[in-house]
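Session log. Operator J.P. requested a structure for one protein chain; no other inputs attached. Running the standard single-chain path with token output.
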Amino acid sequence: MKRHWQPLRRCLELALAAAGIGSATPAGAHSSAAAMAHAHVVIAIVENAVNVYHHDFAEPRRTQSPATWIPGYPKSAQPLRLRLAAASFAAARHADDPVWAKLRAGQLYYLPGTKFAGLVWLPSPLDRQTSEVDTSIPPPTDPQRPVIDGYTYHGTGVASVAAGNTYGTCPDCDLVIVAADNPEQGLEWAARQPWIDIISNSWGGPLGVPAQVFASDPMLAASTTASAGSLAAARAGKVVVFGSGNGVTDLGPTTHGTQHSLTWDSPYAGPPWVLTVGAAKAVTHQPTDWHNIPVDVIAQGEDRPAADSGSLTGTEVFIGTSCAAPIAAGVVGEALYRARSALADNQVGPRSGSLLAGHVAHGPVADGRLTAAELLAATKAVAVWHSFDPSTVASDPTQAFATPTTPAAFAYEGFGVLDRDVVAPLTRVLLGQSPQPARPEMAQWAAIADQVRATRWGTAP
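Structure written below.
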């Protein structure tokens, strides 16, 4: 087994020493593709608690079952009719307490009047018995209910920056909330749904091993098997996105200079079929000095506005790679939505391994199909590169290996930043209207990284 690991340190060293800096993707006009009524893209959010009442998720025109407008959507899904017009979140929470008390584990619901085309509750065995998300002493006035009670800040932020009406990078996407106590179980559930296109994951097991320590002794790896859910999703042709993580201590956004873990050791962010997303700073768009490395791309992980978890209209600041991952997922989703609209493609979810069907003369869809790998390759190619400024990285002597000294800084930034300004160029690439940027400065790094990831976890499906 050891011989499979010997190339790891050398590969990382070679990649970090690669020279050359790519230029930013040229700006272009916003895509003029009309949003046709039959085009849909579905993003699944694996979380455990979300404020589904916030107006960032409102869609008053959606009243019927998604089975009537999403191909392949289960007709067995039930409506969850909520008091969306209540005066406050607290009022809605109290009025709908009987509704949440009757929520059935494993049943797929849809929420009329919202962007939530699906919601499924996958509780722990204890929650199945009590129908509560936690317990406290003294008992609360209102029993704790699934989905809307608990740590809603995280799930609300993820859903909002992915596909919220105001804050999302894909305001045209439909959302599915997979409220799972065990997120791997939630990921596996989403992987089995043929009508889901993209799965966004802002969670992962702790790595606990600094990148520089791991690189000097690869046998310290503890994980041996890649996430079964991510592999199943990739085999089904879906796009799987994972945040890289916030450093060894997971306190990166508030404790700068924390040691970096090596993402290649993560069974979630590590496999080559996953889009691994690090965090970018809000103003400079430089990679932060705390997210785990290496990464494929980065997205904003500091000071991002998102829907408030305790109100109907408020805003709160979202942070971390938990924020960056759904931003990236939304960018992919919005471009896919616009391409489907332009090609009058009404499919949802991969069909025979393809996420898009149509006839274009050039680009990745010239053969009439678009695989998840091709979509991710195009996404990385249009990411906006920012020349690395080493002075922005905290000086920590323990980061001697993890902190790159080369101007390329590929491990920190990957192909570059994903945000709303990337949607239009990516759409044009998918429609064959613009050539896919070659990014030769990243080709060598990507090849080395994918080889190491495949050696660790297996090849992409």
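Operator note: The longest strand covers residues 116-122.
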